[in-house]
Write a structure and sequence with these properties.
The complex is a heterodimer of chains A (154) and B (695). Chain A has 154 residues and is an alpha+beta fold. Chain A has five helices and seven strands; from the N terminus they run E-E-H-E-E-E-H-H-H-E-E-H. Chain A has helices at 25-40, 83-101, 106-111, 113-123, 134-152, and strands at 2-9, 14-19, 49-51, 62-68, 71-77, 124-125, 128-129. In chain A, the strands form two sheets. Chain A has a five-stranded antiparallel β-sheet, sandwiched between helices. Chain A has a two-stranded antiparallel sheet with strand order 6-7. The longest helix of chain A is centred in the middle third of the chain and has 19 residues, at 83-101. In chain B, a hairpin with a 7-residue loop joins strand 3 (589-595) and strand 4. Chain B starts with a helix and ends in a 9-residue tail after the last strand. Chain B is built from 31 helices and nine strands. Helices cover 59% and strands 9% of the residues of chain B. Classes of the chains: A alpha+beta (154), B alpha+beta (695). Chain B: Residues 569-690 form the GAE domain. Chain B: This is AP-1 complex subunit gamma. Chain B: Its main location: membrane. Chain B: It is a peripheral membrane protein.
Chain lengths: 154, 695
């Protein structure tokens, strides 16, 4: 199960935070800070897996992260998820964002965080992987966006 | 203002305080807008609220508004409303129950996307009550032909089962033809659902075993089918689905011969045919290996699996090496010999630059140590101990001791322990001393190594303590140059005493260390011939400001003056000690086990040294002791009742025990202290006093 999905930039500012288990607001912010602290220390050429920090659960949980330019994408998962599989999932997520926003950059994530949530909702649900086919995800998201647009016009 | 205007405004803030001010202003505006029950702007306001929530500002006043949005007819409203519900609400708030009706209606909505939103929210944060109410709707949707909804319903069902396990039976009929779906999304989530059901109930597991042939067929199709553009990831057809199916097969095949047999072929096929040049191929291969190891596979297949792991260890990609080490750690218990074959590669990983890999390699190395390879392994592990990061040193040193205790003979044990000694934690000092005492033949070598370490560096307190203790005990061996294992060093009695006296005056020595060195000097009075020098030292410290040292010195002085005839007996070699079991989880008390001479032979004087290795001070520290009726106990006042953090100091306390019947000495102690604001209590029994103390 995926416990949390976090995106933050090189300075630790959160760009997306989705928790699939309940924590209080303070704890959530602490987790973000702690994760940033752990992940930012890592070199560029080490492996993408880290033992989880103290707050987010302890020995069964791992942080799987990828660093793209100015952003860190971090998935906190337990032992029921395949680590290498999650790495691929992050890749699919980023490629989907790239397709939806056309050469996505950090600014897109900053100004359209609700859209990013919508895309993520088509990929991961309740901490479990829902859909991994990029085209399928994009089709669904596009149809829903069309629905929204049609409600706004008149 | 619009969400993006808000974001733009916040980004112009130059300080945290400025940002906070802007947000507070906006929050106030939003709050008044909510009060006015403004439908048009509600959606926008909640979106802004969610953004501020992400930055860490409180947003709970928006919870009810999310509910109003969910109840709206517009899709736009519902979308933000549900998102808000997922981010801001949870089952601990009563508010969430109000959603139940809305979700129920939306689950039956004519638009699939609305149904999708409802399923998504229910699947993310539905409470047990909600799940109970709505399970029927979810079950209905699980049977629909709409693949978009079907896959969401499957995952929602998983959530329902997690919250209300009794409802699992209800979903059983719907699972009948889940696997005949063509749509990969549905297949994927169905496998997740089946996996969840099998993990939770052995009955379900038995029931679903009959699906193994079908799963094998699906997997085969995925591998054998040619290029399929919709599911292709780096040249492999839907690797995510393959990995999921492999995992389910693992659960179904475990401890079941027939199922395992049915999967053997396909596993061998995947293992040999998968391309390993990209991460996706390796992900599948890795999952295959784990499955092979877990089910009742034939031995040829198992060897193939371990060899794949061995190949992974040599891969350039660090991620692959990491997962290989992780899985080898899991299999080392069951397939010990097979893993041993890769020992040299694993040991090489100790030298990797990556912290995560080093940690895994260290754990795996300790698991692989046995009687045959202990010499070689110890060499590597000690080298690692020397060069690794500080965060590893404590664990590694403990591992070395454990391994030495379990597999080393006496000779080897000492050889290994002395270099590792520099990294011990304070609590290991007594253990280390005990190990040294018990390796009788190695005393000369040990004292020589430790003495040399003392000459090099006197800042590492645990090491200095052990070294001075050894020098006191075995100083005669040191001076007479009896070492066999290495070139014996030439050192005179005066030089040794110089070093020990140096410890007494050095700024680097803690009071505990000073105590150790004074006692060591005293012990040498029966082993060396320069007794006068020792007498002088002891005399000087009789007026030391440090109460602990003063007391020791005064008593040693008394030993010289009135009890000189007892001195050799009191200070003779320590006997072999039994393993102690007194160290409780808090690990803060060190009982030296030493006793000092005193006027009344029936009284044993025990000095307690308490040190604190945690990060915060321990305040209100109180030591209490209880003894059997035959004893009388007198506790003198402690030096302090604050034990400073990070071993920056110790609290000493003297206990006098009157033991007229000369019964074996033992007592129960109770420690109470306050750590970081909360009170802690710890009880322990101490009964390993050397016989000289009470006879």
């Amino acid at each position: 199960m995926i416990k949390a999905i976090l995106i933050f930039n090189n300075h630790g500012k959160p760009r997306l935070s989705k928790f699939y288990e309940h924590y209080s607001e303070d704890t959530e912010q602490q987790i973000i800070r702690e994760t940033f602290h752990l992940v930012s220390k890592r070199d560029e050429n080490v492996c993408n897996f880290l033992e989880g920090g103290m707050l987010i659960g302890g020995s069964d949980y791992r942080l799987i992260y990828r660093h793209y330019a100015t952003l860190y994408f971090v998935f906190c998962v337990d032992s029921s998820e395949s680590e290498l599989g999650i790495l691929d999932l992050i890749q699919v997520f980023v490629e989907t964002l790239d397709k939806c926003f056309e050469n996505v950059c950090e600014l897109d994530l900053i100004f359209h965080v609700d859209k990013v949530h919508n895309i993520l909702a088509e990929m991961v649900m309740g901490g479990m992987v829902l859909e991994t086919n990029m085209n399928e995800i994009i089709t669904q998201v596009d149809s829903q966006n069309k629905m929204e647009k049609s409600e706004q016009s008149p | 203002m619009l969400l993006r205007e808000l974001i733009r405004t916040i980004r112009t803030a130059r300080t945290q305080a400025e940002e906070r001010e802007m947000i507070q202003k906006e929050c106030a505006a939003i709050r008044s807008s909510f009060r006015e029950e403004d439908n048009t702007y509600r959606c926008r306001n909640v979106a802004k609220l969610l953004y501020m929530h992400m930055l860490g500002y409180p947003a709970h006043f928006g919870q009810l508004e999310c509910l109003k949005l969910i109840a709206s007819q517009k899709f736009t409203d519902k979308r933000i409303g549900y998102l808000g519900a997922m981010l801001l609400l949870d089952e601990r708030q009563d508010v969430h129950l109000l959603m139940t009706n809305c979700i129920k209606n939306d689950l039956n909505h004519s638009t699939q996307y609305v149904q999708g939103l409802a399923l998504c929210t229910l699947g993310c944060m539905g409470s047990s009550e909600m799940c109970r109410d709505l399970a029927g709707e979810v079950e209905k949707l699980l049977k629909t032909s709409n693949s978009y909804l079907r896959k969401k319903a499957a995952l929602c069902a998983v959530h329902v089962i997690r919250k209300v396990p009794e409802l699992m039976e209800m979903f059983l009929p719907a699972t009948k033809n889940l696997l005949s779906e063509k749509n990969h999304g549905v297949l994927h989530t169905s496998v997740v659902l089946l996996t969840e059901m099998c993990e939770r109930s052995p009955d379900m597991l038995a029931h679903f075993r009959k699906l193994v042939p079908q799963l094998v067929r699906i997997l085969k199709n995925l591998i054998m089918s040619g290029y399929s553009p919709e599911h292709d990831v780096s040249g492999i057809s839907d690797p995510f689905l393959q990995v999921r199916i492999l995992r389910l097969l693992r659960i179904l095949g475990k401890s079941d011969d027939d199922s395992s047999e049915a999967m053997n072929d396909i596993l061998a096929q995947v293992a040999t045919n998968t391309e390993t040049s990209k991460n996706v191929g390796n992900a599948i291969l890795y999952e295959t290996v784990l499955t092979i190891m877990d089910i009742k596979s034939e031995s040829g297949l198992r060897v193939l699996a371990i060899n794949i792991l061995g190949r992974f260890l040599l891969n350039n990609d660090k991620n692959i090496r990491y997962v290989a080490l992780t899985s080898l750690l899991k299999t080392v218990q069951t397939d010990h010999n097979a893993v041993q074959r890769h020992r040299s590669t694993i040991v090489d990983c100790l030298k990797d630059l990556d912290v995560s890999i080093k940690r895994r390699a260290m754990e795996l190395s300790f698991a692989l140590v046995n009687g045959n390879n202990i010499r070689g392994m110890m060499k590597e592990l000690l080298y690692f101990l020397d060069s690794c990061d500080p965060e590893f040193k404590a664990d590694c040193a403990s591992g070395v001791f454990l391994a030495a205790e379990k597999y080393g003979t006496d000779r080897q044990t000492s050889l290994h322990i002395t270099p590792a000694g520099s990294y011990v934690r304070d609590d290991s000092v007594p253990n280390l001393i005990q190990l040294i005492t018990n390796s009788v033949e190695m005393h000369a070598y040990t004292v020589q190594r430790l003495y040399k370490a003392l000459l090099d560096d006197i800042s590492q307190q645990p090491l200095v303590q052990v070294a001075s203790w050894c020098t006191g005990e075995y100083g005669d061996l040191l001076v007479s140059g009896q070492c066999e294992e290495e070139e014996p060093i030439q050192v005179t009695e005066d030089e040794v005493l110089d070093v020990l006296e140096g410890l007494l005056v050095s700024n680097l020595s803690t009071p505990v260390t000073r105590g150790y060195s004074l006692t060591a000097i005293m012990k040498l009075s029966t082993r060396f011939s320069s007794v006068n020098r020792i007498k002088k030292v002891v005399l000087i410290y009789g007026s030391s400001i440090d109460v602990e040292l003063q007391q020791r010195a005064v008593e040693y002085n008394a030993l010289f003056k009135k009890y000189d005839h007892m001195r050799p007996a009191l200070l003779e070699r320590m006997p072999i000690m039994e393993k102690t079991a007194a160290n409780g989880p808090t690990e803060i008390v060190q009982t030296n086990g030493e006793t000092e001479a005193n006027p009344n032979p029936n009284i044993a004087i025990i000095t307690i040294h308490a040190s604190n290795a945690t990060e915060a001070d321990m305040t209100d520290f109180v030591f209490q002791a209880a003894v059997p009726k035959t004893f009388q106990l007198q506790l003198l006042s402690p030096s302090s009742n604050v034990v400073p953090a990070l071993n920056q100091g110790t609290v000493t306390q003297v206990i006098r025990v009157l033991n007229p019947q000369k019964v074996s000495l033992s007592f129960t102690n109770c420690l109470t202290y306050t750590l970081k604001g909360s009170p802690v209590q710890d009880l322990a029994e101490v009964n390993n006093f050397p016989p000289q103390s009470w006879q």
